[in-house]
Specification:
The chain is mainly beta. The chain has helices spanning 7-10, 315-320; strands at residues 20-23, 36-40, 43-47, 60-64, 71-74, 88-91, 95-99, 102-103, 106-107, 111-115, 120-123, 136-140, 143-147, 159-164, 169-175, 185-189, 192-196, 208-213, 217-223, 233-237, 240-244, 257-261, 266-269, 282-286, 289-293, 306-310, 324-326, 329-330, 333-337, 342-350, 355-363, 368-369, 376-384, 387-395.
């Protein structure tokens, strides 16, 4: 298990720079929840799920934001017999992949590929194990990772399976270091997988946010300030991981929106959705906006609405986008991205505030060796022309 962050850092919050919600066109297809999203650049397909009569679905709709005019268009359904809910959806720029899920109470182990160009669905190799639903998934370096999930409807597992796209083969990658999870939110962003929340084997709703790298494994990078949630949605916009909705252990459905800044390792509360609390929504991003549709309300009805959230970025945040520390999960070295070619002073600081190293007249093309540091959280202080910036990274 990788090191966790301190409680003080995990509960660092911000309540500034609130964004704005706008209600858009109603979804034109069957009302549903528990579906998935496939996205390749500007191709967004929303589908599968379960309807109000508890029928599993194979239909998809295509969401377009051409010329900043959001609109729903017909999509291509999965073949008959591939109806499902609670499946994994992961994508690259060319293909979308759908794995597993639940069909009329039976978990599935099949994998499908959707070609955005020719709009064709193709079956791939089945997982050589029992079916999974409510699992998490990542697409990293040509592999689809299937994380945890429920095998039989009675208990979740802790297995991680890896599918090679090039070879059309499966292999058992290992076990999660945190035990089983079911109904976690997940996203792939900047060559890392992120997993939030979910239900563990004891039935507890988890608050942890993890990052995953095939090279370095799992790292806990945060805990949700509002506590444990499952059935939430997560998307990525720049350095922000947005987490919406879901339900907690008491059965409360949330309309809250939070984001976690992966550069600063801090949580921020955003404008809540001006509607009912929802879980099992389908969410995606386009042009730095966050969209969601459908979802289940606490009274058992399904939302037909599509919402768009436009984040607000302060002038300081906009300027800070040019100042980055990479990678934020570092094993051997880090480097600074900054508009200035040479910085006045750069300091490497431990989690408890001890200055470990000071560099003066620091050229930004010079990397900082962190290979000898103990695992944990560190800060880099940049002092340049009277302005101070603080960036964080995790040594793994």
């Amino acid at each position: 298990m990788k090191p966790t962050l301190s409680t003080a850092l995990l509960l660092t919050l911000s309540f500034a720079s609130f964004g704005q919600w706008t209600e858009l066109n109603l979804f034109p297809g069957t009302l549903r929840d528990d579906g998935l999203v496939l996205q390749g650049h500007h191709d967004v397909y929303v589908g599968t799920g379960i309807d109000a009569s508890y029928n599993n679905l194979n239909s998809f709709q295509h969401f377009s934001d051409a010329a900043s005019q959001p609109n729903w268009l017909p999509g291509v359904a999965m073949p008959n017999g591939a109806e499902r809910q609670a499946a994994i959806g992961v994508s690259d720029s060319i293909h979308g992949y759908v794995f597993g899920g639940l069909t009329q109470g039976v978990s599935r182990n099949d994998l499908w590929e959707f070609n955005y160009s020719n709009q064709i669905w193709s079956p791939l190799a089945n997982l050589p194990d029992s079916g999974r639903y409510g699992a998490a998934g990542f697409l990293l370096k040509g592999h689809v990772y299937v994380v945890s999930g429920d095998e039989s409807g009675s208990a979740s597992c802790s297995e991680i399976w890896k599918y090679s796209i090039a070879n059309n083969t499966w292999s058992l990658y290992g076990q999660t270091p945190f035990g089983s999870r079911w109904r976690s939110a997940y996203i792939t962003s900047d060559s890392l997988g992120y997993l939030f929340g979910g239900v563990d084997s004891t039935g507890a709703y988890r608050p942890e946010l993890y990052s995953f790298s095939p090279s370095h494994g799992w790292t806990e990078i945060g805990q949700h300030p509002a506590g444990g949630l499952a059935f939430s949605a997560m998307v990525a916009i720049d350095d922000r991981l947005y987490i919406f909705g879901g339900s907690d252990a008491s059965g409360q459905y949330s309309n809250e929106l939070w984001y976690f800044n992966t550069q600063e390792l801090t949580w921020h509360s955003e404008t809540p959705l001006p509607d009912h609390g929802l879980r099992e929504v389908m969410a995606w991003t386009l042009n730095k906006a966050f969209y969601l549709t459908f979802g289940l309300r606490s009274d058992g009805t399904r939302s037909a609405k599509t919402w768009r959230f436009l984040p607000s970025f302060s002038a300081t945040e906009v300027a800070r986008k040019e100042i980055q520390l990479s990678p934020t999960l570092a094993n051997s070295e880090i480097f600074i991205q900054h508009p200035a070619p040479i910085l006045d002073t750069v300091q490497l600081i431990s989690e408890n505030g001890i200055i470990l190293q000071t560099y003066t007249r620091y050229p930004i093309n010079q990397k900082i060796d962190v290979s000898e540091l103990a695992n944990g959280v560190y800060q880099v202080r940049i002092l340049h022309h009277g302005v101070t910036e603080m960036l964080r990274f995790v040594k793994i």
